[in-house]
Amino acid sequence: MASGFVNIRRDVDDKFYRYRMPILLTKIEGKGNGIKTVLPNMSDVARALSRPPSYTTKFFGCELGAQTSVDEKNERYIVNGAHDANRLRELLDGFIDKFVLCKSCKNPETELIILKVGRTEDIIRDCKACGERTPIDMRHKLTTFILKNPPIKARKGKKATNGDAAAGVGGGGGDVTPENGNGEEGGDPGAESDDELTKKIKAEAAELNQDAAIEKEDWAVDTSPEAVKARQKALESSMAAAVLGGDDDGDDDDENSPYTQFGNWIMDVPETEDQKALNIAIYKKAEELGIEKKHKAVLILVTIFTEDVVAEIPKFAPLLKKMVTSEKHQKALLGGIERLVGLAYPDLLPQVPKILMALYQDDILDEEVVTEWGTHVSKKYTDKDTSKRVRKASAPFLKWLEEADDDDSDEDDD
Known about the structure:
Layout: E1 5-7, E2 20-22, E3 27-29, E4 36-38, H1 42-49, H2 53-64, E5 68-71, E6 76-80, H3 85-99, E7 110-117, E8 120-127, E9 133-135, H4 142-148, H5 162-167, H6 194-205, H7 210-213, H8 225-242, H9 258-268, H10 275-288, H11 295-301, H12 309-323, H13 327-344, H14 352-361, H15 367-374, H16 384-393, H17 395-413
Antiparallel strand pairs: 1-2, 3-4, 4-6, 5-6, 7-8, 8-9
Helix pairs in contact: 1-2, 2-3, 6-17, 8-13, 9-11, 10-12, 11-13, 12-14, 13-16, 14-17
């Protein structure tokens, strides 16, 4: 099974391209006249594009002349007939070009708007990146379906339904949710505020069932060596994308930037049983590149971890202590952990409390920093949905910290 992530614009070969989506998966079921192609991760793909999964599924039906089946509640999307995965991915590129990308700047940060002028209805792409509004070609058959099933807007302060979440209410593409263009809460009427999320996490923490709380993103997770390697590569790319432009070191959008070199070096570093020598070698490489004191370097450093991260943290603790020297560094480390468990190893979500505990017990993370991180969703390092899931998974650890504080307070009172 294919796995990993690709650029939303697959014609863009830049591995640091910030807008990414899961590779579309397909599964053939049935036989004879009852044969059909199931799209098991269509919800995830559609969410990355900020479009309802029914739009993409119906688009396939229009292009292939096939009947489609959409079950939003159970997230089951079907195109009748047996269809090649590569063919469907090519059609998805066509959907992205026609119904997602801004015609002006080719950016996927767009929202579909239906404009009525008299008896005429037009569909417009409202770009949050460049501000342009560009029209959809109304001759395409999908436009009729969109007009009958317009994008749903959730009321501010009201919890969005599963269908709303899958539809990407509020617009925006890829890893950036376009609220007001700079990462602050603003014009997205379907997004939950940080305060609302904080209240929700605290309310649920006491009765959190770890197995029930953590939702599976895919119908199955491929754990083959090839799939794991692909997820590691996706993580490396997304890490690099996260540090592009916006630090104090100038433009990093270059394969010769020190962060790119550091990331490539880490991915290729040979295995060794001499952990101390490995820690020293990594630090010296960062020092050689002049980034040993930069918080971005910590974000890249997280790519050294694998699915055995809990056991690996004590081994790399001396290196982490040397490189994580401020609150900014700690936040970058937490951002790296978000990407590690959210992109490279989604099966690690239940291990988030153990990961945080290991970092906390080794004095790498401060209580105040991790507590603030745990109750404030940020899309700085990953998309908002992933950010929420990782923080929700961290609730048992946050609850433990809170109870530990209460115990200390009781002892002081005595």
